[in-house]
Write a structure and sequence with these properties.
Layout: H1 10-31, H2 36-58, H3 66-91
Helix pairs in contact: 1-2
């Protein structure tokens, strides 16, 4: 039988503080008078960063086999590609 390993709390607290800081930045960006397209890009980037932190640390994907990163990362790359294609329609003016 395996003995339970001691989990260090410090990384989780650091990630929690980082997520809180990113949330504060999101609130500030939402209140700025930015062009709506730029605001969406910035907020989506912040949201993706927060999602990556949650997946890596709280879902323990950081410590799993690298194959899981490929399996989980490929659909994320496809979603990013689709998002960029759809946002290009908004950024590039109609002719």
């Amino acid at each position: 039988m395996q003995t339970p390993t001691r989990v260090k709390k410090r990384p989780y607290i650091q990630v929690f503080v980082g997520l809180a800081a990113l949330t504060a930045v999101e609130v500030l960006v939402a209140g700025l008078a930015l062009e709506p397209t730029l605001r969406v890009f910035v907020l989506m980037g912040l949201a993706a960063t927060k999602a990556a932190l949650v997946a890596l640390f709280y879902m323990h994907l950081r410590y799993d086999h690298r194959l899981l990163a490929v399996v989980g990362g490929f659909p994320l790359l496809l979603a990013l590609f689709m998002f960029l294609i759809l946002m290009a329609d908004r950024v590039i003016p109609n002719r």
